Amino acid sequence: MLPIVAYGHPVLRKISREIGRDHPGLQDLIHNMFETMYESVGVGLAAPQVNRSIRLFIVDASAYGDKIPEAAGFKKVFINPEILEESGEEHSIDEGCLSIPHIREDVTRQEKVRIKYYDEHWAFHEEQYGGIVARIIQHEYDHLEGILFTDKISSLRKTLIRKKLHDITKGKVNTDYKMIFAPRRKKLSNA
């Protein structure tokens, strides 16, 4: 299981770089990301969340399959994805993130997404998704762009959760999974 990068770590704010089919250890990384996601009880995980600034994320929406038919059996790997279009009505739904534990906020997103990407076998796809699957894809894709769900909430909500976010950056959070926190800055002496 890979450690999850916590809010405040600089890798979460970088725009990720594309990779080639010869990227070292790619299949092992994908396998380890799925294991990490399942152990952490997530439905999606982006490479920056495991301290890799590459354009890769995984999704397994099966947990919603009992209530949402399009989520049943939906398990995919997205390599070098590009969102081509977001469309449809905007909906606000409660979101959380493994990198921002114990915080959930309403995030507004459009209901459909059209995306192109390569899968783990380097087959090219261009597909459209809706509903919860589109939302998970949008959330994970944002990670590749250095965007977190907290960037999409109101100023008031940001103010109300500021202390919780600060605590996460300082490592003052308990999770059932291992986390990596931002490196601490050394204080300059007055000598």
| Radius of gyration from the alpha-carbon trace, in angstroms | 17 Å
Q: Taking all residues together, what is the mean pLDDT? A: 95
Task: Give the percentage of residues in beta strands.
Answer: 25-35%
Number of strands: 7
The fold-level CATH name is: Peptide Deformylase
- The sequence of SSEs as H and E is EHEEEEEHHE
What does this structure look like?
The protein has 191 residues and is α+β, with helices and mostly antiparallel strands. It has one domain (4-180): Peptide deformylase (Peptide Deformylase, Alpha-Beta Complex). Helix content is 23%, strand content 32%. It has helices at residues 26-39, 131-144, 155-169, and strands at 4-5, 44-46, 56-60, 75-97, 100-118, 124-130, 179-180. The strands form two sheets. Strands 2-3-4-5-6 form a five-stranded antiparallel beta sheet. The mean pLDDT is 95.
Summary of the model, kept short:
With 191 residues, the protein is an alpha+beta fold.
List its traits.
191 residues, two-stranded parallel ribbon, alpha+beta, five-stranded antiparallel beta sheet, Peptide Deformylase
Which helices and strands occur, and which strands form pairs?
Blueprint: E1 4-5, H1 26-39, E2 44-46, E3 56-60, E4 75-97, E5 100-118, E6 124-130, H2 131-144, H3 155-169, E7 179-180
Parallel strand pairs: 1-7
Antiparallel strand pairs: 2-3, 3-4, 4-5, 5-6
